[in-house]
Design brief:
With about 500 residues, the chain is of the alpha/beta class. The chain has helices at about 15-20, 25-40, 55-65, 80-85, 110-120, 145-150, 155-160, 195-200, 200-205, 235, 240-245, 260-270, 275-280, 285-300, 310-330, 350-355, 360-365, 365-385, 390-395, 405-410, 425-430, 435-445, 450-465, 485-490, and strands at about 70, 95, 125-130, 135-140, 150-155, 170-175, 185-190, 225-230, 250-255, 280, 340, 415-420, 470-475, 475-480. It has three domains: about 5-255, 3-Layer(aba) Sandwich (Rossmann fold); about 255-385, Orthogonal Bundle (Helicase, Ruva Protein, domain 3), CATH 1.10.8; about 385-508, no CATH class. A five-stranded parallel beta sheet has the order 4-7-8-1-9, with helices on one face. The protein has a three-stranded antiparallel beta sheet with strand order 12-14-13. The chain has a two-stranded antiparallel ribbon with strand order 2-3.
Length: about 500
């Protein structure tokens, strides 16, 4: 419902009574504004991708039902983002009694301050206008959160300064929830809230009133509650007490992107790239796909704790690191432009190791090894979208599209591809491999020069992941060689050689 900006000229209660303004609860506000947006076919939760047919319809039904909401899902599933976007369904401005700490509705005041002020000044009571973005409160549930933080407590300093007895309700210092009257109040990670603190929410959710110490207070608070929780929390760190869960009307399950295309939209939207990076670095779709595929592989990995989840923040951080790896490379080579390479994926490992929780087997392998394993699986999966299956091609003998490449390596040749090679060095190195350029010409049509060399590099990585070639991951380079010679010369998995170069061997 469009807000009448002329109402902002109203400064007193008397003027407000004469206007067309009518009070309504926050749940009615949300409901009626949602109805109007649905009828106008407006986008309601902008920037939320992949939930159009699942989560968002559930949220809309909950709002239409005037329910308190619990968003239940693993980390990095946009739960808090959704809660914050609900603010856009509020009226642009609402009137409040000026100076009230509880956002009192001038037409329906609830606090002692507002009631006394209106009794004293009547229609001359001053009012102010509160914008929708000021009507959102968020609290992270932590073990140190107290009832006083959320509900309130007696303030001895206020009692002393105002010379009031402790029996006077004016000595109360209100907590976050009463101060969020007529607002959206979000508690993140609800199970982390101690059980005795959760109990203090019972009356607020059911009757809308609060209890502080021994005071007989009746504050009909008007609040839209939104809670977020992680399923892992129910067993590992805490739980939502049953009576509180019973008072939360709608529990809505969130999920991770169901396709790589949706994941790419989210990552591109959230990644923070500098203008200089966008100008200097070309980002091909292949690398965007590989970044998302890493997350897909992590969510299916036997080494990763799936109960903990793999946050969308992994792909966002990995994408940023990937671009920064290319930027560092062009700075070292004093170049102005480049295209992302497969070798730049070495830069995403820190983003992976910091964002996955490993099971026991994963801890034994080590986070760096698991991260490299996820990169390998991502390359292996995406490879078949661009090139013939090497395992099937091996049976073709003379018609094997990889035969010339494999013969070149089989003759004793090796290829060292430096991580920070200049654009020209990179191309010259790849040109050495006989049959590699022809393979790309035969399988990938209409590629520009830079994309052709990217695919040539990708072909080598893919052949290595399908055990057609050997690949050593060294500190400063990648070394490709014949699979048999690589097996005979490979040092122990996960060890450092005499040159302190880390060697990675895919287990076969």
């Amino acid at each position: 419902m469009a807000f009448d900006k002329s109402l902002l000229q109203i400064k007193t209660l008397g003027e407000l009574k004469k206007s067309a303004y009518r009070s309504r609860s926050i749940k009615d506000e949300l409901r009626e504004n949602l109805i109007e947006k649905i009828r106008r076919k407006e986008q309601i939760f902008a920037g939320i991708w992949g939930y159009e047919e699942t989560v968002i319809p559930d949220i809309e039904r909950a709002i239409l039902s005037k329910h308190h909401i619990n968003l239940l899902g693993l980390r990095g599933q946009a739960k808090t983002r959704i809660a914050r976007l609900m603010v856009e369904l509020l009226d642009e401005y609402i009137p409040v009694v000026a100076g009230s700490e509880l956002n009192d509705d001038p037409l329906q005041p609830i606090s002692r301050y507002a009631l006394d002020l209106i009794a004293e000044k009547g229609d001359q009571t001053p009012i102010a206008w509160l914008h929708r973005h000021e009507r959102y409160t968020e609290k992270l549930a932590t073990p140190d959160v107290s009832v006083a933080d959320l509900i309130g407590d007696v303030d001895p300093i206020k009692a002393a300064s105002l010379k009031l007895p402790y029996s006077d309700e004016r000595v109360i210092h209100f907590g976050l929830i009463p101060r969020s009257h007529r607002c959206i109040f979000v508690i993140n990670e609800l199970p982390d809230l101690q059980a005795r603190i959760q109990v203090s929410l019972f009356n607020i959710l059911q009757e809308g009133d609060i209890q502080i110490r021994g005071f007989k207070l009746r504050l009909p608070l008007d609040i839209q509650f939104v809670f977020t929780a992680n399923p892992e929390d129910y067993t590992n760190r805490g739980s939502i007490v049953t009576p509180l869960k019973d008072r939360i009307d709608s529990q809505i399950l969130t999920h991770y992107p169901k396709s790589i295309e949706i994941g790419k939209k989210i990552t591109a939207q959230e990644a923070k790239l500098a203008p200089a990076q966008k100008q200097a670095i070309e980002i091909p779709e292949l690398l965007r796909d590989l970044v998302e595929q890493i997350a897909v592989e992590a969510r299916q990995s036997e080494y990763v704790d799936v109960k903990s989840g793999v946050s969308a923040r992994l792909t966002i951080s990995a994408y940023e690191n990937l671009v920064s790896a290319a930027e560092r490379r062009i700075l070292l080579n004093n170049e102005s432009k480049t295209m992302l390479r497969i070798a730049d994926l070495v830069g995403v490992i820190p983003a992976i190791t910091g964002k996955i929780e490993l099971v026991y087997e994963g801890e034994q392998e080590g986070s760096a090894i698991v991260a490299q394993n996820l990169l390998s699986k991502a390359i292996r999966t995406q490879f078949l979208r661009y090139f013939p299956d090497p395992e099937k091609s091996k049976k073709l003998k003379e018609k094997n599209p990889y035969s010339q490449i494999l013969e070149w390596f089989g003759s004793g040749e090796t290829l060292d591809l430096l991580n920070d090679a200049s654009n020209q060095e990179y191309k010259n190195t790849l040109k050495r491999v006989k049959g590699l350029e022809q393979l790309v010409k035969d399988t990938q049509k209409g590629l520009d020069e830079d994309s052709k060399f990217l695919m040539m590099e990708f072909a080598l990585h893919g052949l290595a992941e399908y055990s057609q070639l050997s690949k050593k991951i060294l500190t400063r380079s990648l070394q490709f060689s014949d699979i048999l010679s690589g097996m005979f010369n490979m040092p122990d998995f996960g060890k450092y050689d005499d040159d302190d170069d880390f060697n990675y061997k895919k287990r076969i």
